[in-house]
Predict the 3D structure of the following.
Amino acid sequence: MNKINIKKRMSGQVVLMVLLVSALVLTMGLSASKNTVIETKIDTDENLLKQAFNTAESGVEYYLATGETQYNSDNGNASVVTTDIGNVGSLDSSEVVLNGKPFLFWLVNHEDDGSVGSDFFDGTINQICVDSSFTGGLKVDLVSFNGGNYSIQRYGYNMNNGSAVSGFSADNNSCTEPIVVTEGMLLVVTPIGGSTNLSVDGNTNFPSQGEKIVSVGQMDGGVNTKITVLNRFDEIPPFMLETITAGNSVLSQ
């Protein structure tokens, strides 16, 4: 009887151990399966994000080429919304302008085809401002259309360890003194000796500088990506470039 009971107990223990091992193996299998599903979903989402980004880029390119704000691909689409940059009394570079790189602030309107118009800026540029940490200088070229002739005035502003040396307002070492403008066409500001953000403030509204394009790429899998592009009027017409580079241009300061 004792041997029979011992065999029964051992048999029961073996069954219990088998059940425990089976449960453990099943749990590990389910966990591995779950991880595989999660990793597969992550890979799929990353792929869809890349496709959504590419679709959003294609939406911008399609808008620039056709003017249409809806773009459709094989497995997604892009919606484009545009807003005007400008038609306000204060403008900024929206980015750090690198040392020696000219940045354009337009003082004349542009036609629908992108050509320069004839609605010139008449007023005062109250100030051109840089970052408070900027220790370089500014080269400023102001192109005007006075009396039927293109002319240019050049200004130079120097900083010394964040303190104004010349041309900057006594009230604000990071902003220049006012400039009176008559029939202004273009303000070209170039940081020298360092990189900085730029802003310009006037006593009247500046014309449009271009447009901000926001494109949202949407994929059939429910993933979407948004990109923003600033499409500024950056190209200088040849006749104006000749004015800027001419040696006999009208100079001041």
About this structure: The chain has two helices and 13 strands. The longest helix spans residues 2-66. The first strand starts at residue 70 and ends at 72.
